[in-house]
Amino acid sequence: MKTPRFIQLHDLAPHALAQEAAAGLSAASAYVSPKFFYDLLGSRLFDAITELDAYYPTRTEAAIHTEHGPSIARAVLAHTGRTPVLVDLGAGSCAKAARLFGALAPRRYVAVDISVDFLRTSMLALQREHPATDMVGVGLDFSAQLQLPQTLLDGPALLFYPGSSIGNFAPGDALRLLREAREAAGGGALLIGVDLLKRKALLEAAYDDDLGVTAAFNLNLLKHLNRLLGTDFDVRGWQHVALFDERESRIEMHLRARQAVSVRWRDVERRFAAGEQIHTEYSYKWSADGFTELLRQAGWRDMQCWTDAQGWFGVFVAAA
Question: Considering the domain boundaries, does residue 88 fall inside one?
């Protein structure tokens, strides 16, 4: 049996992450990158979110792959050829990519996440299921730049980006990432999941569930900052906010101060007025035609899209 290799390309030194978080908190309009959601508890809370009735994206995307899997696989292999390199962006548990192995039989699996430590256990388990497949875990923050070692990308590759995570990028940043993905594909293909526009009530319920799991996920970010940066956030003083901005076509998540509060870290003090917010996430929603046009602008071609019966979610395949 082969053994997975691991390469850490992104600097995960605590001081570098702390500096990034501090810069966001110090900005005129405070913000924190969504990457800081995913400490151990945050990752578990997100897994719980995907099980909620109100959170449709995960189960809807999975249902599309179940119903249209053979057609999707044929479309991919028409562009990559047999046994492509499979590049899994934001791999996490590797579970979504694992479901593609039977149809695509990749010769190499490249799992990309911000930290290889997130990948080790799941990749070792996946290697036992596919002992002959070359597997490489890459620690990379591709939200800044998607650039992989060329030695891993010999021949056409499939860039796989499920879960509607492309929605976390503003349109200009999404365009940049899609262009970088096309370069990395080496003449191969893209397989990407996209959350589509729908009624405001459905969208807001998915990000502000009745059980408060998404609120806990958002508020846990403050506890992560307390450990990482040494801030003194009291989560009881903050409120989870999720709303859909129809003009910008995006869900916005914020943390709103319940009353005037001062937050301290190191030799810095930041005062927040009652009602002032810290932005934590955008999730842009697209029409099928709008996302197809974005792919075209990024240089992709021969776009195909599969949706569920309600048109809530789209799975796109495109050729590099």
Answer: yes
User: What digits encode the pLDDT tens for the residues 257-314?
Assistant: 999 999 999 999 999 999 999 999 999 999 999 999 999 999 999 999 999 999 999 9
Report the distance separating Cα 227 and Cα 149, nearest Å: 33
Residue type, 233: F
Domains: count for the chain? 2
Domain range enclosing 96: 57-198+287-319
Residue 241 three-state SS: strand
Rounded Cα–Cα distance for residues 43 and 54 (Å): 18
Burial of 289 (0-12, 13-18, 19+ CB in 10 A): exposed
Q: Are residues 275 and 298 in the same domain?
A: no
Taking alpha carbons only, the member of 212, 210, 213, 237 closest to residue 223 is 237
**Portion of the chain with pLDDT greater than 90, in percent:** 91
